[in-house]
């Protein structure tokens, strides 16, 4: 089954079910998903409220491969006007020394180094691709943009 923009996928964790909303396909880096809030003991009957709420963050995730390998399951769809963010961020260190944050323009991939983040930059999602192991680990530890240091 081919995935389509707007599809909602379920991924299981030891603490409950999490939901991903597929919003963008980048020809180079791949599938961008919104990580929807909460871990759920039961699958919601209707995804409109959940998918219409503010996401925890967005990440690039190999959704097509995860779907093919049955790591995720398509459970619904939610058509919306969500777009990829203009900027994302990445922790930058060299040989273990923290040097700051890269603010990445998602169109040009140009990076700007900042020593500390302002309140707007703290809301930027992580740049790069997360696999299912990292995603599940971050879901069960309640990883968030606010506590990302």
Short description:
This protein is mainly beta and 149 residues long. The chain has helices spanning 48-52, 63-68, 132-140, and strands at residues 7-13, 16-26, 30-35, 57-60, 73-77, 87-94, 97-105, 111-114. The chain has two domains: 1-83 and 129-144, no CATH class; 86-124.
Question: What does the model show?
Answer:
The chain is mainly beta and 149 residues long. The chain has two domains: 1-83 and 129-144, no CATH class; 86-124. The protein is 13% helix and 36% strand. It contains three helices and eight strands. The longest helix has 9 residues, at 132-140. The mean pLDDT is 95.
Topology record:
Layout: E1 7-13, E2 16-26, E3 30-35, H1 48-52, E4 57-60, H2 63-68, E5 73-77, E6 87-94, E7 97-105, E8 111-114, H3 132-140
Antiparallel strand pairs: 1-2, 1-5, 2-3, 3-4, 6-7, 7-8
């Amino acid at each position: 089954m081919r995935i389509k923009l707007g599809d909602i996928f379920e991924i299981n964790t030891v603490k409950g079910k999490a939901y991903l909303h597929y919003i963008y396909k980048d020809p180079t880096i791949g599938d961008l998903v919104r990580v929807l809030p909460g871990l759920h003991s039961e699958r919601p009957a209707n995804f409109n409220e959940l998918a219409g709420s503010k996401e925890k963050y967005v990440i690039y995730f190999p959704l097509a491969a995860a779907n093919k390998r049955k790591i995720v399951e398509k459970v619904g769809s939610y058509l919306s006007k969500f777009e990829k963010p203009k900027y994302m961020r990445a922790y930058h260190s060299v040989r273990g020394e923290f040097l700051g944050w890269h603010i990445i323009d998602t169109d040009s991939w140009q990076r700007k180094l900042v020593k500390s983040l302002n309140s707007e930059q703290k809301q930027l999602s992580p740049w790069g691709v997360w696999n299912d192991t990292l995603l599940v680990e971050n879901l069960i530890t309640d990883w968030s943009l606010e506590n990302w240091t």
